[in-house]
Amino acid sequence: MGGVKLHGSWASPFSNRVVWALELKGIPYEFVQEDMTKKSPLLLHYNPVCKKIPVLVHGEKPICESSIILEYIDETWPQKPLLPIDPLDRATARFWIKFIEDKEATMRRIFVARGEDKEEARRASLEVLRTVEERGLGGGGKFFGGDAINMVDLTYGWIAVWMKVLEEVLDMKLIEGPEFPRLQAWAESFRTAAVIRDHIPDHQKMVLHLRRRREELLLPPN
Ligand SMILES: N[C@@H](CCC(=O)N[C@@H](CS)C(=O)NCC(=O)O)C(=O)O
Predict the structure, then answer these.
(1) What mean pLDDT do residues 26-51 have?
(2) Which structural domains are found in the chain, ordered by start?
(3) Nearest CA to ligand 1 atom 16
(4) What residues are in contact with ligand 1 under a 6 Å CB criterion?
């Protein structure tokens, strides 16, 4: 069907989960770095509805939304499956993917919250993490799906990588506290897993990037 291109951004968790899926499956692709401050005509052409990255372009056909891209990749290149075969296990995997996607706005609030609002945003994020700790990672395996990384791990991967960055930028503890031993063990397994460890943006570069981004977002409107 033709070549594969990924329009994304090195610092985006959504973009990186697609990178991880392509790399895990060994699919050759070209990465097209998009500038989020000045969207390219090509990005607007491929994703005229949401105007967001990531967009996977397979033989000139665009696929948008990271979770849908992951499903597309898994169906198109079935080697090293990212979802369990068993329908019940598959449904459970999709449940946890939907869970964190629905909580994204709640978790995102902490990035720009200030004062009392910051404490409330932290409390709401910790509640989400507690649910994942107690219910999502209760299966005893190294990863969500057992011994191999699956689509749930890729979707939660930002927690393993970006949380550490956020903790530094916001100067607060999130998953580093004593109440998250499973999440910490999972995050360490994820960050150090073959393939993933070679495709994680540099920590210090991300700290600088997110500091700058936060300052921009906190600027009072003109
Ligand atoms: N739900 C989307 C979210 C993607 C998203 O928020 N992308 C951001 C970059 S991290 C973006 O393109 N932002 C540009 C904008 O909102 O205008 C997905 O999972 O693909």
Answers:
(1) 97
(2) 4-76 (3.40.30.10), 87-218 (1.20.1050.10)
(3) 52
(4) 12, 14, 36, 51-54, 65-67
